[in-house]
Amino acid sequence: MPTKKHRFLAALVCGLCLWALPAKADDSRTRSTKPNVVVFLADDAGWGDYSRNGNTQVRTPHIDAIARGGVTLDRFFVCPVCSPTRAEFLTGRYHPRGGVRGVSTGQERLDLDERTIAEAFQAAGYATGAFGKWHNGSQWPYHPRARGFDEYFGHTAGHWGEYFDPPLEENGRMIRTRGYIVDVCTDRAIDFIERNQSKPFFCYVPFTTPHSPWAAPESDWKRFKDKPISQRATLANQENLDETRCALAMIENQDANVGRVLAKLDEWKLTDNTIVLYFSDNGPNSSRWNGGMKGRKATTDEGGVRSTCFLRWPARLPAGHTVPQIAGAIDLLPTLTALAGVKRVGDKPLDGRDLSPLLLKQATDWSDRMIFSLWAGKVSVRTQQHRLDDQGQLFDMQADPGQTAPITEREPEITARLKAAVTAWRQDVFSGARTKESVAKTTASDQKKAAAANAVDPRPIPVGYREFPITMLPARDGEPRGGVRRSSSAPNCSYFVNWTSKEDSLVWLLDVHTTGRYEVVIDYTCPESDAGSLVELHFRNSRLTGRVTPGWNPPLNTNQDTLPRPPAESQMKEFRALKLGVIDLEQGPAPLTLRALEIPGQAVMDVRRVTLTLLP
Questions:
Q1: Cβ atoms of 611 and 521 closer than 8 Å
Q2: What is the pTM of this model?
């Protein structure tokens, strides 16, 4: 007969066994106590594009709700353009340190020895996914799947020319989707959260709007197309009112998608333990109301680099709290990892600060700091009270937030100190930017010239990794030679045109990681009357030839846009896959050259991309 002691031990063992049983996925009480993280990043939205910041012409209730339920970083600074801000968010370091010096032609790539916020959360056991615009490298191992994300869906380029039924990348393969691009990517983000709701997740949703092309869903545009614009740009004579209307229509669509995600977090009882962050990557992409600030996208003045930044975490962050201290994109990695109790990966020193004491209203000795802004060789620096602009003029941002009256002569000591700080910062970030991946010169003058000319980055494109065998070589990453040119001056979503001579060629500088056989597919168009050109793909001692056939000449998608597309942006069309065959590629760096051997018609073909797939 069991003794009292035996009965106690049996009960204890039974209890331990029950405790060790796997938790049910639908039981919110058994979910991990680690906070989930959802990051929304707007593309080209200005500080003034939100009703929370005083814009009476737009309604952003869901984005505003993040601020009402959490913390507002009142003076939050990003970069003047897209890819640098994304790099700083990912690494907590100023973007020149990571080799990012442009927005296209490979200049947007983040060096491979940089560690990202996604890698930190992935290493801590989080499910990680990114859904939208990446803009820090397209080919593996620059690809988001190699930078800490388990899943990726969207476009890796900085600008996408198709907002309705767009072709988008799904973990390495292009698929044609249905719907408006922001809606489609948000659908994927929601699906990711639903599949991972029983474990901690890090969900990154980098939107593509209100970046051009000016294309909003009809239901959103209807509310704005005849709307009077009463709040005007700082330089009202430079404002295009229809562009303002369209930007705000896209913002309202974006707000609705933020609302969809927040509603799902509520439905799945995830809200309380989910950190939600919303910010933008630079100032507004057109002249429109921005609180009276000077500057817009691509400038280093206040209006070009100040962004909305809202954080909500009901379990810990106080609601309705505003942080007045200056902060920036470089602070987000140390802040989010600290809040979540996640250890960062990598040992490179960060430029950003952990803002969690400020967010949590904790007593802290917070010293004044400097935040630097760079684009096209121009640098400005912000302190809590002052901004030294890229012309060396000093402004008191508390007394003169619109930068209307420089105080350079009145405050010579402050001016001299900040000028010296800019000089030291330039030397610091550029001297450290020459890594084994960043072989190009990265001086300020080189950056300015390269960005202006859209020069192809000299770092070779990596090809042929077994873990990610598909490598896409878009036109934006290649070099047109001879008479070939891009379909527009903005390379990001362009294709090669005007290929008419046997002296013409298309060139991509590659670094083949694995010697092997590669399937070659070219996305092309060609009028039926020009079909039949014989083309050759050449890499070192390997050559592959094939005919451009059949003819395929679809119309341009000119009916997608709400407003006429600027000449600098390509009108897109439906490209067809030409299976050229299989080529042997030898390990190592060399140019991959596509040229024509025979041209029976007037032109060879238009080319959007070449895709190389390493065969088993």
A1: yes
A2: 0.92
SS3 28: helix
Mean pLDDT of the chain: 93
- Measure the CA–CA gap between 532 and 525, rounded to whole angstroms: 12
The Cα–Cα gap between 478 and 441 comes to 19
The helix/strand/coil state of 445 is helix
Record the tokens describing residue 222, joined without a space: 């209807």
The DSSP 8-state label assigned to residue 96 in this structure reads G
Rg (CA), the chain: 26
**Residue 106 structure tokens:** 């490979």
Residue 33 — pLDDT band, cuts 50, 70, 90? confident
Q: Is 226 helix (H, G, I), strand (E, B) or coil?
A: coil
Q: What is the DSSP letter of 60?
A: -
User: Letter for the amino acid at 338?
Assistant: A
Q: Which two tokens stand for residue 89?
A: 């968010």
* Strands, sheet with 394-396, edge to edge from the N-terminal-most edge strand: 371-375, 378-382, 386-388, 394-396
Please identify, in words, the CATH class of the domain defined by 36-361.
Answer: alpha beta
End-to-end alpha carbon distance in the chain: 66
Dihedrals φ, ψ of 602, to 5°?
Answer: -85, -25
**108, 414, 515 from 231: Cα distances, Å:** 35, 35, 60
What residues does each domain of the chain span?
Answer: 36-361, 460-614
Beta strand 127-133 with 151-155: parallel, antiparallel or unpaired? parallel
Distances (CA, A) of 568 to 166, 257, 456, 607: 20, 29, 18, 18
Residue 596's beta-bridge partner residues?
Answer: 535
Architecture of domain 460-614: Sandwich (2.60)
